[in-house]
Specification:
The chain has 25 helices and 25 strands. The protein is an alpha+beta fold. A hairpin with a 2-residue loop joins β6 and β7. The radius of gyration is 32 Å and the shape is flat.
Length: 750
Amino acid sequence: MPLEASALSSGDNVQPLHQRRNTVVVAHASPKRLRLKLPLLRQPRLDVGHLTSHISEFDGVESVRINAAASSVVIGHDGEAATRSAIVHRLETLSHDTLRFLNGDSEPSITPLALRAALLLALPVLPATLGKALVWGAIAPRVLRGVWSLFAKGVSVEVLDATAISLGAAQGRTGTALLTDELMATGDYLEETTERHSEDLLSHLLYPHPASAWIVRDEEVVKVPFSDVHTGDIVVVGAGELIPVDGVVHDGVAQVNQASVTGESVPVGKETGDQVIAGSVVESGHIRIEAHHVGDETTTARIAAFIHESLTAKSDTERVAEDFANQRVLTTLGLGLATFLLTGDITRVMSVLLIDYSCAVKLSAPVAIRSMMSEAANRGVLIKGGPSIEALSKVDTVVFDKTGTLTRGDLAITDIVPLMPELLSEERLLAMAASIEEHSRHPVAAAIVQAARERGTDHVAHEDIDVEIAHGLRTRVDGQEVLIGSRHFLQDHENIDLHAHEDAARALSAEGKMLLYVAFGGQAVGLIALRDELRAESADTVKRLRAAGVERLIMLTGDRKERAEALAASLGLDGVFAELQPEDKAEIVQKLRDDGHHTAFVGDGINDAPALATADVGIAMPRGADIARATADIVLLQDCLGGVADAREASQTAMDIIRSNFRAAIGVNTGLYVVASIGWLGPVAAATLHNGTTLGLLARALSASRFPESAGEEPRDITPVDEAPQDKVLVDETSEAVAGDNHNAAPTIH
């Protein structure tokens, strides 16, 4: 028998029942598990995912599982009596403002459709009077909407719908009236469910869910639920921890990986006065942050809210289809009136009015678009609305950012160059560098360590390592000082002469490689070259886009012209713009549009946001900056460039089906009008043929959700962007500049 929460234990400090804001009943309690009944879970459109995350933030909570249908929540905890009491108390006092709700008043229900279908089957055996009454009750909502629309908006499709089913019911053709209403309701249901599926997937995908935070309270560092962090609090974040707020570093020094927020591949140094963004990760060091924006005001939360609302816009095709259907209302009513005046045959009038363009024309476009959006999301392509599908189908020029887009973003060692081979061989140089770098979490260090593991090099003993934040590493081997870092660090900070090795560095740089310098005993002894590898699917994506009708493929990069042109040539691109500043990208895209091209831009970094917004269609890679994802029209959820071709092919499929359905609806229904008006088609046959045509076209519209065969794979589980593994990083244009002579743009080396 369920227990009241106050009966957990005599020592639990729980509010009396009459003071509770929410009813909480303990259905079962074990030492480390609570199963509670929460009536608040029955609230329509409650965001259960957000509530699960919120409860997970409670101190002592280890797991949360919610069954909204059963109004039940199962909570695993640390077994402390105080924890049980605190859980119950916080749920009892949970305010409505804390909860989140999905768009809309309630979930679409299939129950009314099932009831209408059951009534259709039962009509032949029901008493006539009862059947007629039940049919009028079933169609009453649509009839009332038609009456309201007539007075509020004038003659519209709703008026035609109401007139058609009312005439049928009034003439005793209850089956026809009910079937017509069922078909209209089915279209409404399909449109609403597919649209909400996409909305819900998107909102959960990008909603940030920090669990808790360490803050300074009364000169002590304490752990609190994230919901208890306020503007002005000093938040403490150590190595490996997520930064939960937007703010400014109050004190401390750290290396911060902002790849999931800004798209920057190489961790950046942060010290007092520097800004930090929620969602980034401290890789090394320790900082205290003064919180400026928390909760819904953080950058990631604002972007999530923006994207969540982006699916509401209708495409031009949807608007045209709806306007066309509305415009044909008067035509249909006019045909009905003309038929009556010429023949006086009310049966012919019913036949004409039961044939309308509204169902097939008005519903086919949104059903096809929403279904494609839903299927695309399951395939790893998040499309933010009908306008994006329509615009992508018209694109004739695709512009790619290079790093993290055409290239994978994973660094790999390409060359190990001993500058003093008599002192250090290639194997010894790699072994020493890896032995030192293995203490770092930097992506450059990971590449060096991986290369050493593959070669099976021995460990080189060394003294304690000093980290020169944003520059490099310092230690001693065999009594000699060892420095590993950027050219800027060794040459400008440590006065190591590198001029004798200029030719070797320039040759490696010309091949698109970034360089790491090693000094031993005050002399440069080695160069380690790394490069961001070209994506294996890049060439195939280019071919598929050309096959899908894209006429021009262009690459933009801040990289040197020579290496950029070499990469573009290897992929068969039509043009390349190199040595660009971030603001140049948007200007180039705008120039292409001014020249009459329909453009799509594919990028990932924060500096790509202007170009993504400028293009007709912006496509963001999965590990791109949040601002890039917010600006983009399409977000790839899988780290595969082939998603760009998938999206293009899918958009063309959807638009082809919409256009052909539109033509078919006009042709078939016009023919039915003619046949019905001359008396060759009775009401039952008219309704059957018209509704059958509409069902066929809607079924064909639903088939738009099937991706083209070239998309290849079965639907996959989607890893949310904000949960993507932190060890996959990108190398951005700033990092590439290191391989050249831009010393001020040197990479951050631990």
